[in-house]
Specification:
Layout lengths: L1 E2 L10 E3 L15 H11 L27 H5 L3 H4 L3 H22 L9 E3 L3 E4 L2 E4 L5 E3 L4 E4 L3 H7 L7 H20 L15 H19 L13 E3 L2 H13 L2 H9 L12 H14 L10
Parallel strand pairs: 2-3, 3-7
Antiparallel strand pairs: 1-8, 4-5, 6-7
Length: 296
């Protein structure tokens, strides 16, 4: 995955609070086994940690920008995105939101931008406070995506994904799929209290995978406002393979087999590796969000 070196990155779409502390807050989930269990439960659920039972009950804002806000200092152009991980995520956020803004306009609807918050260790949100153990998540209470960049190392080391730049992009695009669901009214369907292979929770997650694929289909043609050219200039089949590998690595069956030694479909919340890959491929193949109706 390559970015246009001359494109200007919009860092206003990312809030960098790495190094900040939550005033009066405390870690809600510890490390070790407890943290790992929380990560498995929360991974890509797309809702806030309060709905996972992983908060201390407080509802605090994300905090003020840290003096360690590298994004605003260092991420200016597509060239920066080609050389720095945090700048790459800024560029992906820009591309994903450019696409959905244009797609909503095409459908005579209004897209409301959602910031991504970079944090380290713990963060306060409108959905409660959470630690990095929860994994990347979308909070509908403040309509923000939350991401600790160290998660991408865990995606390789704990979940066995091959990694790569587009694996990171898939994660971001999946979370913005939840934002699209929030705007269109389908995200709330995951909160029916059920689990299992045929639950609404699984269907919501698979739809977000499909929406990630839809963005990927259009990624190299969605124009950047600063240049009038696409921000992403190259997306190869190897990149898509990295994305599919990441999707499979966080399938419920893969996670259960890896961490509990058996597969129990009646407790699934996200879908199997095969399902996650299937729906990402469907979005990528068609480029049409209407083909992402996982509820039918």
């Amino acid at each position: 995955m390559q970015f246009d070196d001359d494109a200007r990155l919009d860092t206003s779409e990312v809030q960098d609070v790495r190094g900040s502390r939550i005033p009066g807050g405390r870690a809600t989930v510890g490390g070790g086994v407890v943290g790992l269990i929380a990560l498995v439960l929360g991974l890509f659920l797309g809702v806030g940690p309060d709905q996972l039972g992983l908060t201390d009950g407080s509802s605090q804002p994300a905090g003020t920008a840290s003096s360690l806000a590298e994004v605003q200092r260092s991420c200016h152009t597509g060239q920066d995105a080609n050389t720095r991980d945090d700048c790459r995520i800024v560029a992906v956020v820009n591309s994903v939101q450019d696409y959905w803004d244009q797609e909503f306009e095409r459908r005579r609807a209004t897209y409301t931008a959602s910031p991504t918050v970079f944090f380290s260790q713990q963060v306060g949100t409108a959905c409660g406070s959470a630690t990095s153990a929860v994994g990347p998540f979308y909070c509908p209470g403040d309509r923000k995506v939350y991401l600790d960049l160290e998660f991408f190392d865990e995606l390789r080391s704990k979940f066995g994904a091959s990694g790569g730049a587009f694996a990171q992009a898939y994660v971001v695009a999946h979370e913005y799929g939840h934002h699209v669901q929030d705007l269109t009214g389908t995200l709330s369907r995951s909160q029916d209290g059920r689990a299992g292979a045929d639950s609404n929770s699984v269907k919501v997650e698979l739809q977000a995978d499909c929406y990630a694929g839809v963005w990927a289909h259009h990624a190299t043609t969605t124009k950047d406002e600063s240049t009038g050219r696409p921000l992403i200039t190259s997306l190869t089949e190897a990149d898509i393979t990295d994305g599919l590998d990441a999707a499979a690595a966080v399938g419920d069956d893969r996670i259960q087999e890896r961490f509990q030694g058996r597969v129990t479909p009646e407790t699934w919340t996200h879908g199997s590796a095969q399902q996650r890959q299937q729906w990402f491929r469907e979005g990528y193949r068609t480029g049409d969000m209407a083909r992402c109706d996982t509820f039918r």
